[in-house]
Amino acid sequence: MDLTTFILFQLIFEGLLFVVVFLLLWRLLRYEKMVKRLLTGDELDQFRKLLLASQAETVRFLEAMEDGIRRGKELLGALKGEMARRERTHGEAEVMDYLRAGLKTEEIAARVGMTLGEVNLIAALARARGKLHLP
Question: What is the spatial distance between Cα 133 and Cα 135, in angstroms, rounded to a whole number?
């Protein structure tokens, strides 16, 4: 293939490329005009208002969700605290029952699942409050 043939093929290719690009631009402009005819100014304004209202509602919804999550976490913390308090009170009552029954603190600690120091502390507090009278 000589240089003249190569240049001729290149010119034909560039000409076809120009025609294709021209047709694409022409169709794009036609499409743009069609879209402008379909969406008048009033319709576009209504769409924008609807979009703004939707965004505002979305923000409000997210704020409500975050508030609900925060309240849920607070409630969960309060429930955990209440459960811990009830377990502690239940454990203290059980220790008091065993102390009144005359069991040794070591045996009470093993039965209740507390440390010996906790059982001794509960017994000392009960004596100080006057709730436990041992012979």
Answer: 7
The full set of domain ranges for the chain reads: 1-38, 39-129
Distance (Å, whole) CA 74 – CA 67: 11
According to the model, what pLDDT value does residue 89 have? Answer: 64
Q: 72: which 2 tokens? A: 């849920």
Placement of tokens 């208002």 in the chain = 49
Distance CA 79, CA 25 (A): 67
- Claim: this prediction has a pTM higher than 0.90: no
DSSP single-letter state for residue 113: T
| CA neighbours closer than 13 Å in the CB half-sphere of residue 19 | 6
Contact 95, 121 (CB under 8 A): no
Asked if residues 108 and 120 have their Cβ atoms less than 8 Å apart, the reply is no
C-beta of residue 122 within 8 angstroms of C-beta of residue 96:
yes
Q: Which residue has the tokens 């631009």?
A: 25
